[in-house]
Amino acid sequence: MKKIIVSLPVILLNQLLFSQVIIGGTTGTASNKTSVLLEFEGQNKGIILPYTRTLPSSPTEGTLILDASTSSAARVKLYNGTWVDLSGQDADITSSLLIQPTSSQTAEDSNAKSIIGNSSSQADGVLILESQTKAMVLPTIENTDDIINPSPGMLVYIKKTGAKRLAVFNGNKWAYWMP
Question: I need a labelling partner for 1 at 20 to 30 A (CA). Which of 10, 60, 139, 160 fits?
Fold first, then answer.
């Protein structure tokens, strides 16, 4: 708990000063990674996408979610004007949903969001990256087999010679996207 309390002010101060956040890293700074808005360093970890029990009614293009509207047929999806399935297969995440809070368990503020890169955003999301010149760098790994017990909705980039690709885990299997 102490790490969270100490880390949050550091992240917020970093956001105000540099509009850049590097999580888990020791090699990057705002001065030598000027095109990076959000970066995850370290091995064998990934980003967990939000589990949504209802698809957003008016999502912003670029929205990524784990669609859990049918818990026995969950899929990772991207919104680019229409919802695109990135999983290519169903996953039963019923047991994983048991440990996720529901709106009846929490007083969710529908207007609450964290924005990195700007002081405000019209986009609707939990974490919003706003920049015309900077990007998010995904957590990089050598192999999805190295991730012990991946969580449904996990997103990583595989950085291995001849096999660079985006990988998403829907709770059952990894799906791979090559450039």
Answer: 139
